[in-house]
Amino acid sequence: MDGKPSRRPIRLGSFRAKFILVVGGAVLFDLLVSGGLALWNVQRLSRDATLEVGQGLEAASQEYVRTYADSTAAQVSLLLRQVHNDVSALAGVLQAQIDDPERNAEVGTAISRTSPDSVSLTYDEKGRWSQNAPGSVSVMSVWGYLLGPDHKPRPDVEKDIQTSSVLDLVAPSLLQHGASKLQMYYIGPKERPIFRTAPYTDQAQTFDRLYPGHNDANFWDFFFPGLYESWQGWAKDSKTRPIADEITQTAPYTDAITGKLIVSFFHPLWSADRKDVAGAAGADITLDQLAQTVENVKVAQSGFGFLAMSDGNVVAINSTGEKTLGLRSASDTSGTGVTGLERSLKRSSQPAIAGLALDRERGIQHLWLQQDGNAVPYIVIVKKVPATNLWSSGPVRQEAMSLGVVVPEREIDASLYAAQAKISEATNRIVIYQILAILLSLLVVTIAVFAASKRITSGISALADGAKRIQAKDYSVRVAITSKDEVGEAGEAFNRMAEQISYHTENLEQLVEERTAQIEDAKEEISTLNAQLQRENRRLGTELAVAERIQLMVLPLHQELEEFQTLEIAAYMRPAEEVGGDYYDVLKNGNRLKIGIGDVTGHGLESGVLMLMVQSVARALQEAGNTDAVKFLTDLNSALFKNIVRTKIDKHLTLAFLDYDGKEMILSGQHEEVVIVRANGKVERIDTMDLGIPIGLEADISAFVKTHEIAFETGDLILLHTDGVTEAENELGELFGMDRLCREARRLNGLSADKIVSEIVAALMHFIGSQKIHDDITLLAVRHR
């Protein structure tokens, strides 16, 4: 049926009415759903933005607190180190006098002649001690038990009085420069504990007033019991020192002369043969110097810092912090000659502070502290100050003070709250605009539906009539729609469809046969490609398995590593893929031993092939008797360079060798740092950057190769590794690093090479955790039996 569609009035059951109802309702529903989703997305975006901004600001605030704590801890450490340096300088002068008795006597005689007030003593009947008169640079006190029947110093004591006067030359300069010090002094050995202090004070008189009975007991036992004996133990065995440093500091105590809380720093002096203690050099600083650094800590409005001993005793804190942490002060009057300050975290009225752990750094901690009956959240971070030797009424022990920074969370998060308020305000404004846009869209859509319904329905009716005729298998039907819109295009498409249906109906069987043949051809082609892909996968898998097997076969056997009587050798290698690019080998030729380690760029089959080339060429050169370390690397590079050019492998490697003939250990080639742990626990690191260049880059590298001789004695350990060890990452993206590797090596010093390798690998795997291993890992330990 051809022709124009007839006009129909709008009735409730008419197509136009249904069109308006259905299309208008659908559009209305779509607008409501879209608008609702838009509003929901805005709210969700607001929440997500608030969360992201909050996390970012919180992380930045916490990083600021951590950085502040780090810098303050560094200031405390710097102050202590400056005092250590000044005491070490004074001790160096006095130790030089002890080591050269003739010069010591000459210097003492010269000072006695030029500064008689420094050595001329007067006996005090009441105190039963002798002391030089005011006017000298230093005060010299000699106790009654060091005087003879004539109240004059014994001859050996007189000699110490003269020689110790060198303090007058050195102490004034040290007191004037460097860290601010209260006083510096020399104390004689236990059998002659004379006491010389600069600047001059009423030293003995003050001791009589504050420490009755001190003149009847040995100075060291009365004031510092156990300290002298600890030093004597160090003289016998230096490994008994808690910290590898001779400086010993005291816990804070009340100074007899100034009445201030001070910390004393002692440096023991040794006899010329280093078998006994010959006295001590020392310096005092007031606790105010440490406290000022800590009390000046101010984070946000009321954040503060504190400095505490490992037992929880707080030695520095401001009054606000003391109240916030609920600390109670008490003077410790026990002991003999010194009075300490007790203000312990463990006795805090705040349970969270009483349970605060200081044994190790734990990053940011969140605590609730009681204030005016309310629980207030605080952020606490604790940083360790470098450990020192500490005396506190007994043997010397290790002490690592902790610096804490405490900040109320509400202050550190103030910027977060402000940002969240701004985001909420912006969100509300966007929601209002969105609602207005939805209402406007509803109005426009309603008008458009009514306007378009009249034009659209006539064409749709014609399409419906034509569809009924096609249903009745009248494929000759055509519709005439004159409109130039989508309905008109639909009419044209309907007519084309009718033509195609007519054509395909008449030629259906032929089209089915052609399509079936095409499908069969495609299936056969796909089957052929699948078979080729399977064969290629099997071939590549076989090649990788063979390469992996060959790589493992050329590694040194366990029994080869046990052939060396004077050396323990242990190794571990783990490739990141089936075939790795790391290289290590242990080659023996007669009495000569060559240990190599290298790292090919990248990993996989090509890296593994280049590693096998290195092993083969190195073995050949070793068997050929090439004993010159520089020529060995030069010849190896020449051979590999030619193979790399031939095979077009775009790879090179870092490579280093250790040559050992039973006497000398020679290092050559460029690779990672070599770690050496001496028998006494000292760790050395050797940078190999100047000992060569990567292998395979140049045809001739003889001008770049250098050697480095390493002293290798009984009990020493050499650790070789590839960057897969130090650059391994944990789940936080942190690197294992050289410092952690050195700490593990020093911790395991003294164990067998196998045990050292296995323990370091265990620590490395624990550090990596579930993180993927991105690079080959190789570790090799050589220990002198």
From TrEMBL:
Residues 505-550 form a coiled coil. Residues 454-506 form the HAMP domain. One of its GO terms (biological process) is signal transduction. GO terms for cellular component: membrane. InterPro entries: Bact_Sigma-Reg, HAMP_dom, PPM-type-like_dom_sf, PPM-type_phosphatase-like_dom. The chain crosses the membrane at residues 20-40, 430-452. SUPFAM superfamilies: HAMP domain-like (SSF158472). SMART domains: HAMP, PP2C_SIG. Keywords: Coiled coil, Hydrolase, Membrane, Transmembrane, Transmembrane helix. GO terms for molecular function: phosphatase activity. It holds the Pfam family SpoIIE. The keyword Acyltransferase does not apply. PANTHER family: STAGE II SPORULATION PROTEIN E (PTHR43156:SF2), STAGE II SPORULATION PROTEIN E-RELATED (PTHR43156). This is HAMP domain-containing protein. It comes from Rhizobium vallis.
